[in-house]
Amino acid sequence: MTIQREYRNQGERLGSGFDSFKEILLPNSAIDLDNINRDELIDKNFLPKDTFVFQQIEDEQALGNMLNTSISVSGITPILVGHCPCLLQGEAKAQYFKKSNINQNSIYLFLDYQFTGGSYRIKKPKLSQEAIEFLHDKRHNLHEFRRIYGDEFIVGFRTGSEYTALIEIKYAEKSKQEQNAFAIISFLQSIFAGIGGGVGFNWEGETKEYFKNTKTTIYCFRRGVSVGNTVFTIEQLIKDFTDFQDKLKQQGGGVEYISLFADYDQLIDTRNYRILSPELIELKRKLKTLRAIKTQKQIKILACENQLRFGGSNSSDLPQQIIELEDSVSKIQDFIRRCEIEPELISSREYIAFLKTDRKITESD
């Protein structure tokens, strides 16, 4: 079984040990990494895919809603347990666009391109000779093994990239703006949708005509591909997005977004050694459930904050919702810490009470 977690850029590497109880990365590896060829790591069963959204934004609340659907690299809001939400990415994007004020006298367009790249992983992981000798050495116990190597290891990564832009178009004459809004949206959509496979027409000449007597303001958020262009005009945005696509093809997938973890118990003869006792397996399963509940509440907090940032007529109760959700997250995290010291707490009524706070998540998840 493979476990997905958001890539946090904290020194993750293939084979790194991981303590899933404390959720900390360890500096030691118990995996044999000799003679591993990166080209042989590519997971051919995981096919790259991309999503493209280009639509008009009518108000600030609509912008907040669009950002809420960009929390995961797949472009799907990860409400169900088992999806891997990229909260760090979602928070970074929301912070970047938080100063965007929707002016009713302008046309606003939202472009969101997300690419879920390939997956690469160790195909047949095995313990290193050092780790095997450690297990066989009677001077050590399994608690010591977990302290040094953890109970999981990084078996692979998934890569991805994203490009998000908010475009404001303002006409000198309001009447022309209303007349040309639909034509502009259709024109730009045909260009951006065609980039990568060839636009198929001379967009440069037509762009000058479409955007004559207009003022544009553009915000671009990119991750996974470095292009470094300055974007002030529609022409520059088109070129920037084209460069982004070209470099994405050259790099073959962007940057690591998701870390893939596996249990050591998959690699050893559990008749003689078991990294986790049945009691620890039960504790780990229940901690996973609690963390899933915590993650869903953090997603809801981010969604509420986006609605609050970008306005909306029904946002008056959002601050209180955020306070209540943050308090709940804090209580869950505190309970998890206490369980690390007193594992028997995981079977208490307090644990059952947390399950009742999110009935969509069950222990079977």
What is the distance, rounded to the nearest whole angstrom, between the alpha carbons of the first and last residues? 13 Å
Main pleated-sheet profile: 6 strands, antiparallel
- Counting DSSP E segments of at least 2 residues, the number of strands comes to 8
Work out the helicity level: 40-55%
List the total number of helices: 10
Pick out the low-confidence regions: 72-84, 197-201
How confident overall, as mean pLDDT?
A: 80
What structural class results from the helix and strand content? alpha+beta
What is the string of SSEs from the N terminus onward?
EEEEHHEHHEHHEHEHHH
- Rg from Cα: 24 Å
Approximate shape: flat
Provide the β-strand percentage band.
Answer: 15-25%
Note down, in words, how this protein is organized.
With 365 residues, the chain is of the alpha+beta class. It is built from ten helices and eight strands. The protein has helices spanning 60-68, 87-97, 129-136, 142-149, 174-194, 203-210, 234-251, 278-309, 318-341, 349-355, and strands at residues 3-6, 16-19, 24-29, 49-56, 107-121, 152-171, 214-223, 255-263. Strands 1, 4, 5, 6, 7 and 8 form a six-stranded antiparallel β-sheet that branches. The chain has a two-stranded antiparallel ribbon with strand order 2-3. Helix 1 runs antiparallel to helix 8, helix 2 runs parallel beside helix 8 and helix 8 runs antiparallel to helix 9 (318-341).
